[in-house]
cholesterol 7-desaturase (Gammaproteobacteria bacterium LSUCC0057), 333 residues
Amino acid sequence: MLITTDKRTNPIPLPMPWGWYHVLYSHELEAGQSTPLTYFDQELVAFRTESGVARVVDAYCPHMGAHLGYGIRDQAGGGSSVVGESIVCPFHGWAFNGEGQCTDIPYAKNMPPRVARGEQVLGCWQVRELNGSILVWYHPHGVEPLFEPTQIDELLDDADKWGEPARFNWDIGTHMEEIGENAVDPAHFKFVHGTDDVPDADVLEFDGYHRRGFLRTRNTTPQGIVDGTIENMNFGPGLAVVRFKGLVDTVLIANVTPITSQLTRAHYTFIQPKPVNEMMARFGKALVDNICQQMAEDKIIWDRKKYYAKPLLCDGDGPFAKFRKWYGQFLVE
């Protein structure tokens, strides 16, 4: 993983956008396991109940402030213990369910009034689990979810059709909007990534919480020029799906999550059909390697660039104004 600090010399004056965000891959959290998280400029804890339900709660026990993500004794080196449907505080054994209710105080004879009334005493987060991800809903005002995350069709296909997923993470020292603008910036492909030409944008659509773009590409290969397409779709600011067709069909599931307003974690998962021969396997790996190289190149720019609310644009630039208007709906102080 590439690590970047969030101490920018040019802080970007934008709040964290609201939406659904990836915080863990499903396989990273087993039943009865808990783990600490840092997202949305907050300390959180994810745990999976013994029945298999993923939960996310605030990190600090409301009793005396212990962090629920770090166990002791037989849990040392891992998260706090999970018993049944609740996570157990390592400090005094208080237990809390995924709704933030205290379910047990093992040494109390008389429960505190709020606990006795079944009130929520620990902050909890809306969670959805699909596409192999654990997603949480973030809104700075505590607003209930305004839309639902989208199931990716390819992940419902017969598993025998697809090879093993390839996953990569980057910590990027910039606001999420700067990363998202790449999707409407075809000109940078030639100058940052060294493509032969500027891709043609056939479709650029902004519809509610969704966005879609469609580009045509020309790829130079030992067998000659191969025409291809790139379809990129956003479902809110946190989830993008990019479908590459041409040389090797590839689906990129690009989850981006704010650690702070100035620091973003990108989680990329690539899936490709099982290769029919060694040559196609090499082409598939080369495509993934090339996209990862492009991320490294973009990261040099993103980590250091200055944000302009009104950039100086020319007629060959992409529809930055339309993108920022669409993206602006997710930005709430």
In short: Confidence is low (pLDDT under 50) at residues 1-6. The radius of gyration is 22 Å. The helical segments are 113-116, 176-180, 188-193, 278-302, 320-328. The longest strand covers residues 210-221.
